[in-house]
Design goal:
Elements (H helix, E strand, L loop, with lengths): L3 H25 L5 H23 L2 E7 L2 E6 L2 H24 L4 H20 L3 H19 L6 H31 L13 H18 L7 H6 L4 H7 L4 H11 L1 H7 L1 H23 L3 H21 L3 H29 L10 H4 L1 H15 L5 H16 L1 H26 L6 H5 L11 H16 L8 H9 L10 H20 L5 H4 L4 H73 L6 H22 L1
Antiparallel strand pairs: 1-2
Helix pairs in contact: 1-2, 1-4, 2-3, 2-4, 3-4, 3-9, 3-14, 3-20, 4-5, 5-6, 6-7, 7-10, 9-14, 10-13, 10-14, 11-12, 12-13, 12-18, 13-14, 13-17, 13-18, 14-16, 14-17, 14-20, 16-18, 16-20, 17-18, 17-22, 18-22
Length: 618
């Protein structure tokens, strides 16, 4: 039996439930204690449906626009990613049930709407469906980042994230327009068949939009500001959802990138550059959430690199493993933030010793992020590096450097959370004033669950699971990484972590501010836009306003002249005609006296005049 109905329910269920919860939260206010239970139940059903459609892989569509349907379908890559999105979202909501205690209806409703948009993004088979979901995903992410609307800095952070990604999203509109003009069709599978010039425009538009969402260079700085949002939002948006969807889109359109040639190369080098430079940024951070944000951009840079070198299987495996690992680390950071009221690394020194459950789970995530064998990101990263090596030695070197940097920043976290705090600090954190609160089971359970895939998902890049993954994704069996590359990366990761433990890590000050990207955006985009706006305002005041005012004055003068002409000419003429008509009427009434002899005289006069006229005429 077809599972098309399951796919429609998969898309519609969180959307409808999210809309209801959001509306109830906005209209009623309060904590809505029933909202977390409802949202968790919806996502539990969503997980079951995700597994069903991953097995059945249905494709459905509905009339949407005159020139394109709203098409969604589950191919091999979506079958890998959609269950991951549903599972991570479910665990994040379980954590949020214990962490979020204000405006729960609005929060959980927005998360469900966001998940619905991500699912459509992951399964969209046509550009209109993708664009629709892309827009909803961006809008709901803005609402979630700025969830605490009464705090201006958080609203400003949402503004930065929204406007930056919206600027990049214009590329997707360009892609739709170019696809229509190129005649290749609006289905994602048809994009490589567009005419060459238009195909390049489609590829450029998709690339810009995807790089913006994935926080790749030069758009990476918005991810730093997005860390102002609640920790569950950071865990969801920046592990398996919005940021991941940018890299995922490039994996989906890999045939288009390859068809243009230049787009694949640009994608690979942008991903490699982001992986290296944002790795340096992560090493320099002293705020845990900022470090994790920079590492997200860096790790997704490897997925973007995979799309550029044609390794869809490697990129997909790394995307899934990273989702589990990074959701785990963000939730651990959120648990510590709620308990201790801080996310500064120096203040979290030794925190794993005081909360061993959270500490052990975070340790698994940090070791996986570092690329320590045999944990998840070690094997998936090497799958990407092997594909890069087949394309370019320089790309491989950049990827290997990024791997070393990931071991450095993960090792930095690992060492600090286990190192004994300085004397007196532990006592300070044990006081009520420090906000040292208990981490409940609702917050701990998702961490322990996520630690399992963070530790074991390396199997997707190892035989025989690797062969099954290649068959699922339809790849023609690229060569597996040789024995040297995994050993080299594993040894480098281990040595780097040990070196960080022994000597610490350099924190380049120039990278602490995210490479000055926000300042560059301000200088290169914001200020020129403001200056242009001021110039246009001055032009409006100095020229357009004068033109409008002059036109109004001239119109007023013409109106006054017309009024004078109306009074002096038209009205006088009308009054003259009326006066003449009255006089003629008076003259015409004068013979009508009522006296018979007057009528006889008038008759004789008329007859005489007639006779005279006849005489004259003859």
């Amino acid at each position: 039996m077809s599972a098309g109905w399951a796919l429609w329910v998969l898309v519609a269920l969180p959307a409808v439930a999210g809309a209801v919860l959001t509306a109830a939260g906005v209209l009623t206010g309060g904590r809505q204690r029933w909202a977390p239970v409802t949202a968790i139940a919806v996502l539990a059903v969503e997980c079951a449906l995700a597994v069903l459609v991953a097995v059945q892989r249905p494709v459905v569509s509905a009339s949407f626009l005159p020139f394109a349907d709203f098409g969604v379908g589950v191919d091999g890559l979506a079958a890998l990613v959609v269950p991951t999105v549903a599972a991570v979202a479910l665990l994040v909501l379980v954590f949020a049930a214990g962490d979020v205690d204000t405006a729960r209806g609005r929060f959980f409703g927005l998360v469900l709407l966001f998940v619905a948009a991500v699912v459509v993004t992951a399964t969209a088979t046509t550009l209109p469906a993708l664009l629709f979901a892309w827009e909803v995903m961006g809008a709901t992410s803005y609402a979630l980042i700025g969830f605490s609307w009464w705090q201006r800095d958080r609203v400003a952070a949402g503004d930065t994230a929204f406007l930056t990604t919206r600027l990049a999203d214009l590329g997707l509109y360009l892609a739709v327009a170019a696809a229509l003009a190129g005649g290749g069709g609006l289905a994602l599978s048809d994009l490589p068949a567009a005419s060459p010039g238009w195909r390049d425009a489609v590829a450029a538009g998709v690339l810009v939009a995807a790089l913006g969402k994935a926080a790749q260079l030069p758009f990476s700085f918005w991810l730093s500001r997005a860390m102002e949002g609640p920790s569950p939002v950071s865990a969801l948006l920046h592990s398996a959802a919005m940021v991941a969807m940018g890299a995922y889109l490039l994996l989906r359109v890999e045939p288009l990138l390859a068809a243009t040639g230049w787009a694949a190369t640009a994608t690979a080098w942008t991903g490699a550059g982001t992986a290296v430079l944002l790795g340096v940024v992560a090493v320099a951070q002293r705020d845990l959430k900022q470090l994790l944000a920079a590492s997200t951009a860096a790790q997704l840079g490897l997925v973007v690199l995979a799309a550029g070198v044609g390794s869809v299987a490697g990129g997909g495996a790394h995307l899934v493993a990273h989702a589990a690992t990074k959701a785990l680390l963000f939730l651990a950071a959120g648990a510590w933030l709620s308990a201790l009221g801080t996310k500064q690394l120096h203040a979290l020194r030794g925190v794993a010793r005081r909360r061993p459950a959270v500490g052990v789970a975070a340790t698994v995530g940090a070791l996986s992020l570092a690329g320590i064998a045999p944990l998840s990101l070690w094997a998936t990263k090497d799958e990407v590096l092997a594909a890069a090596l087949r394309t370019s030695g320089w790309l491989y070197a950049a990827g290997l450097l990024a791997a070393v940097l990931s071991a450095a920043y993960a090792g930095k976290v690992l060492v600090l959370i286990w190192r004994r705090p300085a004397r007196g600090v532990e006592d300070e954190f044990d006081t009520e004033e420090a906000g040292d609160r208990h981490v409940g089971w609702l917050e701990v359970t998702p961490l322990l669950v996520l630690a399992v895939p963070a530790a074991t998902l390396s199997v997707v890049a190892l035989p025989p699971v690797r062969s099954a993954l290649l068959r699922l994704l339809g790849e023609q069996g690229p060569a597996a990484p040789g024995p040297v590359e995994p050993v080299v990366s594993a040894v480098l990761a281990l040595l780097t972590v040990l070196a960080v433990r022994r000597w610490g890590v350099l924190e380049p000050r120039w990278a602490r501010g995210w490479l000055g990207l926000a300042r560059l955006a301000s200088v290169g985009v914001v200020r020129p836009t403001e200056r242009l706006a001021h110039l246009l305002a001055r032009f409006d005041d100095a020229v357009l306003d004068r033109v409008v005012e002059g036109t109004a004055a001239a119109t007023s003068r013409v109106a006054r002249s017309a009024a004078h002409l109306d009074r002096a000419g038209v009205d006088a003429a009308v009054e003259g005609v009326a006066t003449g008509t009255r006089r003629l009427g008076g003259l015409a009434r004068r013979p009508h006296t009522g006296q018979v002899h007057h009528y006889y005289v008038q008759t004789v006069a008329v007859l005489a005049a007639g006779v005279l006229l006849l005489v004259l005429v003859r």
